Amino acid sequence: MSETTSMPTVTEAGLNAQEVRDRMERGESNAVKSSSSRSLADIVRANVFTLFNGIILTAMVMVLITGSWKDAVFGFVILINTGIGIVTELRAKRTLDRLSILVASDYLVRRGGKDVEVSHNDIVLGDLLWVRAGEQIPADAQIVEDWGLELDESMITGESRTVRKKPGDTVYSGSTAVSGMALVRVTAVGAHSYAATLTAQAKVYKKNVSDLNKGINTILKFMTFLVVPLCILLIITQMNAVGGFAHAFTTGAWRQAVVSAVAGVVGMVPEGLVLLTSLNFALAAIRLARKNTLVQDLDSVETLARVDCLNLDKTGTITDGTIVYDDCALLDGADRTATLQALYDLSNEANPNGTGAAVLAGLSKQGVTAGTVAERVPFSSARKWSAVSYAGDGPQSGTWTMGAPEVILAALDGDHADLLARVNRLAQDGNRVLLVVHDPHAAPAGFVDHPTLDAGAVPMGLVTCSEHIRDDAEPTLAWFREQGVRCRVISGDNPVTVGAIAGRVKLTGDRKPVAMDARELPEDLDELARTLEGVDVLGRVLPEQKKAIVQALHRTDHVVAMTGDGVNDALAIKEADLGIAMGNAAPATKAVAEVVLVDSRFSHLPDVVARGRQVMANMERVASLFLTKTVYSALISFGVVLTAISYPYLPRHISYIGALTIGAPAFLLALAPNTRRYMPGFLRRVFAFSLPCGIATALAVLLSAWFVPSLMGWARPVAGDDLFWLRSMCATALFLMGIYVLARVARPLNSWRGWLVAAFAAVGVLGMCIPFVANFFAFGLPGGKGLLTLGLQLVIASLLFATCMWIIPRLLPAATDSVISRYKRLRGKK
């Protein structure tokens, strides 16, 4: 704690040392525990303890118990899938934590009659705190004495204009002093401050689950009830197939029975789809990170594809929060050089506010420099004007005043209704308007100590400034319009001003945006939803209203994205389907957002949405591959149970075939460019594809398992070398059907996709001919009669596939609808 001097003289002494210690012991300090994101333990727990991992791990342990480790290679999917999820989320956490580190500023407090500097956490309840220009207020307080304090409360209220404060007013943590100074008494610290209270409910981690993952999880839950009894039935069937339980345990054949049962169970689990979904989301997140876009929740990548409603905060999104000088429109009789010189000097104060700094920057570009001022009256929010006086003769001499037009015109002689109407029109266009007037007479004695406006002053110019609109705002909004995303601007500012800015960036194209004051919005959510359909711009919006707006849009089945940077946006960002925070946002706002635009550039949003659409469109394509495997594995398992035959292939077969006809091709297809917009009906399309393909594949394999032994003249039950050849032939037929399914998914084949299918087909056949690969995966090529039988088997499988692809979609549309309806009911949807 250090001591400082040279502050204004005040009578209050503040807390003494003992009072400070007592408050510290009672926990009444400004220290607050704040976490920007989930802990390491939370991330690991969420990725490790999943239903999918449980099913695969159980199956892997059962196979390992039998000693057939080659058939347990599918278990590596757990490690890969879990690792991808953990690494990606940890990477996001580290990036976010770096963004969220606050500068540990020291603050000046008055204790024991002296002014001393203390850290943010050492401020206690009841402290007398100095608030100086440029400082962020660390705790809620009440003003005791004031020296022209003006605050920027946009992080709390969303209102971008500065607010003048006076003794007795309350100031909130998170606000920033832009000018002046005040002595305040701390009334709330730490977790009890206004900002902390507002964001407490927002700082609850919200896990987004994508529709794709919901579908996978629903299938897994359904299979949990199916797999257990089916696994038991498969084990009983396979035990009987090797001679019964007694013989199986005596000879050790039970191991083969367990491995066969696991082959049926593992085939039904779309483990590759879970892996590919995580991997594809992770790659999308990495690609976005290269464009300074941080995806905190992998599942939110899919949400990007479905967004049809985007709520934008004005300040920080469309505008960058800075003020720019636009023009000084000269009035009748005004001398341009003298007026611009006076305007520069009026703005050239020791600590100019945002508008003054913008005027200085704009005039400096025009070559205007500082003049010689005789006397100066600084700008005051109470007066609403400032003044300078020049000595000598000529157009520059006399007193010049600049400030709020309505205040200055009210003090002047004459009728200025036309000029005031002009001011109002400029203000309605989103401008900040100042008036410059000139009194040719020298300033009266005592003018600086007791400034007054001379009624005879003459208006010389109207100064217009505006919020700086981001260069990328208009093209970005145009992209969203073309993509069918409805954009609304929601701000705490005046609706007229916000509406004018929205019009300048063509929020609604050639149509003028419809603006509305949020104070007129209905409270009922259904009525609010109807009102929002006809509104493009909302002003004077409170934090609770932003949240209600998102809830109302959900009532009409919109998928809502919400952008923001202030504490006042945190509740709405958390409520939205997709929360998007700017990189310079409040830490609590970034913590609850799914996406953080690290460099705060609005132009990254099209990349964000386009990447989500690419992921969703491609994942729909490859999901059909994986669900086809689930369908035919379930049907084959039921066929094996009902006909009491040995399972027609091993787990290692399905690992080999799945890798070449589903896993690896799906990975490449998922990364392919795809600009298709997301369309409703995902489930219908996937099931409509998977059901006929799965039925055709199951029939081809089961027919082979049923009739090949008879064609080959093998004894029943098939065992020993005969069982090896049968499983090899059935696996070959399964591989052929997998290639057919891949070809249908990859269409059109007159591009690189055709070469992709041909390449994986060739690799699969070549692998079966390599001794090491063939031995590891238990493939064999029969000779003589077996080779002819295999050829006949593959021809019949091909014809069967073509027939099923033509007939089944025509016979089972009602069945497909029934499956989808049951699927949706399982998800709890109407």
Automatic annotation (TrEMBL):
<dbReference type="InterPro" id="IPR023299">
    <property type="entry name" value="ATPase_P-typ_cyto_dom_N"/>
</dbReference>
<protein>
    <submittedName>
        <fullName>Cation-transporting ATPase</fullName>
        <ecNumber>3.6.3.8</ecNumber>
    </submittedName>
</protein>
<dbReference type="Pfam" id="PF00702">
    <property type="entry name" value="Hydrolase"/>
</dbReference>
<feature type="transmembrane region" description="Helical">
    <location>
        <begin position="222"/>
        <end position="246"/>
    </location>
</feature>
<dbReference type="InterPro" id="IPR044492">
    <property type="entry name" value="P_typ_ATPase_HD_dom"/>
</dbReference>
<dbReference type="GO" id="GO:0005524">
    <property type="term" value="F:ATP binding"/>
</dbReference>
<feature type="transmembrane region" description="Helical">
    <location>
        <begin position="258"/>
        <end position="283"/>
    </location>
</feature>
<dbReference type="InterPro" id="IPR018303">
    <property type="entry name" value="ATPase_P-typ_P_site"/>
</dbReference>
<dbReference type="InterPro" id="IPR036412">
    <property type="entry name" value="HAD-like_sf"/>
</dbReference>
<feature type="region of interest" description="Disordered">
    <location>
        <begin position="1"/>
        <end position="33"/>
    </location>
</feature>
<feature type="transmembrane region" description="Helical">
    <location>
        <begin position="72"/>
        <end position="90"/>
    </location>
</feature>
<keyword id="KW-0812">Transmembrane</keyword>
<feature type="transmembrane region" description="Helical">
    <location>
        <begin position="43"/>
        <end position="66"/>
    </location>
</feature>
<keyword id="KW-0472">Membrane</keyword>
<feature type="transmembrane region" description="Helical">
    <location>
        <begin position="755"/>
        <end position="781"/>
    </location>
</feature>
<feature type="transmembrane region" description="Helical">
    <location>
        <begin position="686"/>
        <end position="708"/>
    </location>
</feature>
<feature type="transmembrane region" description="Helical">
    <location>
        <begin position="787"/>
        <end position="808"/>
    </location>
</feature>
<dbReference type="GO" id="GO:0005886">
    <property type="term" value="C:plasma membrane"/>
</dbReference>
<feature type="transmembrane region" description="Helical">
    <location>
        <begin position="631"/>
        <end position="650"/>
    </location>
</feature>
<dbReference type="InterPro" id="IPR023298">
    <property type="entry name" value="ATPase_P-typ_TM_dom_sf"/>
</dbReference>
<feature type="domain" description="P-type ATPase A">
    <location>
        <begin position="108"/>
        <end position="201"/>
    </location>
</feature>
<keyword id="KW-1278">Translocase</keyword>
<keyword id="KW-0378">Hydrolase</keyword>
<dbReference type="GO" id="GO:0016887">
    <property type="term" value="F:ATP hydrolysis activity"/>
</dbReference>
<dbReference type="Pfam" id="PF00122">
    <property type="entry name" value="E1-E2_ATPase"/>
</dbReference>
<feature type="transmembrane region" description="Helical">
    <location>
        <begin position="656"/>
        <end position="674"/>
    </location>
</feature>
<keyword id="KW-1133">Transmembrane helix</keyword>
<feature type="transmembrane region" description="Helical">
    <location>
        <begin position="724"/>
        <end position="743"/>
    </location>
</feature>
<dbReference type="InterPro" id="IPR001757">
    <property type="entry name" value="P_typ_ATPase"/>
</dbReference>
<dbReference type="InterPro" id="IPR059000">
    <property type="entry name" value="ATPase_P-type_domA"/>
</dbReference>
<dbReference type="InterPro" id="IPR008250">
    <property type="entry name" value="ATPase_P-typ_transduc_dom_A_sf"/>
</dbReference>
<feature type="compositionally biased region" description="Basic and acidic residues">
    <location>
        <begin position="19"/>
        <end position="28"/>
    </location>
</feature>
<dbReference type="InterPro" id="IPR023214">
    <property type="entry name" value="HAD_sf"/>
</dbReference>
